[in-house]
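Notes for week 9. Today we move from apo structures to complexes. The key idea is that a small molecule is not decoration. When we ask for a structure prediction with 2-acetamido-2-deoxy-beta-D-glucopyranose present, the ligand SMILES becomes part of the input, just like the chain. The input block below holds both the sequence and the ligand string. Read it once before you look at the output, and try to guess where the molecule might sit.
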Amino acid sequence: MDRKLNLNRAETFSFINPWIRYFLFFFSFLFWVFSLLIVAIGVYAKVQKATDTVRDTFLVDPAVILIVVGVVMFFITFCGCIGALRENIHLLKTFSFSLTLVFLTQLAIAVLGFFYSDQTPDALGKFVNKAIVHYRDDLDLQNLMDYIQREFKCCGWNNYTDWSWNLYFNCTQGNPSSERCAVPYSCCTPVPGEVVINTMCGFGVQTQNYLEATKSIYPVGCADRAVLWIESHLLLVGALALGLSLPQIAGIVLSQILISQIQDEISSVL
Ligand SMILES: *[C@@H]1O[C@H](CO)[C@@H](O)[C@H](O)[C@H]1NC(C)=O
Ligand SMILES: *[C@@H]1O[C@H](CO)[C@@H](O)[C@H](O)[C@H]1NC(C)=O
């Protein structure tokens, strides 16, 4: 009787914990599906893009970044998914190793970002400068710049006279543009109860002094707003980085546990 029980136990006992195995499988599967989504969004954005001005301003096309991140994620999560399902040590080791590499790269970027954070406003200033210069050439940049000015209630980078950087708004005498000395409508403060929207409210504003300009537009430059915003959102960025790294650490730990359990299982069979 006792002997039979022992035999049964030996037959069904496994070093491999099914909970860890299936958790790793579903977890990888979820991120695998997610990676396909990222690639799809990246390809869609790439196809939609007609001009290349945004790519020039961002240094690297954000759509390409999405595609690369998605493809890398696709292969890593695929290794985790199939590795856990088939109890394949090679795939699990590839999964664990790549995930560690991604985690360390992310950590390096975070550390660099932290040390260079005081240079962020300068970099942003360069970006806004380009966005102002190409405001009329690229609809995406125009929408982005309008969004920034409305959202942060600001105009230009240092102040509203920065709109002279743009050919159409340039305030130099003899500029034939009908918008000479104007600022875009997104600089305008909303007028309560206004029935007909005055899209020309920014016209001639660059010739006005601060007090006059305050009556129709946001007189503050976006640089001041940006510094405040970055400071208050640094905590959020940190939380986001942590949120990204937690699933990675979980994946590394779980795959390492599964690898050692599979190795125990193999040596017990031998
Ligand atoms: C706008 O900023 C420029 C550059 O910082 C400065 O020279 C100019 O006096 C400012 N104009 C106003 C109206 O604040
Ligand atoms: C405005 O245009 C003139 C003439 O093209 C140019 O010399 C000047 O630098 C421009 N202003 C700004 C602020 O870029």
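Residues 222-269 form the longest helix (48 residues).
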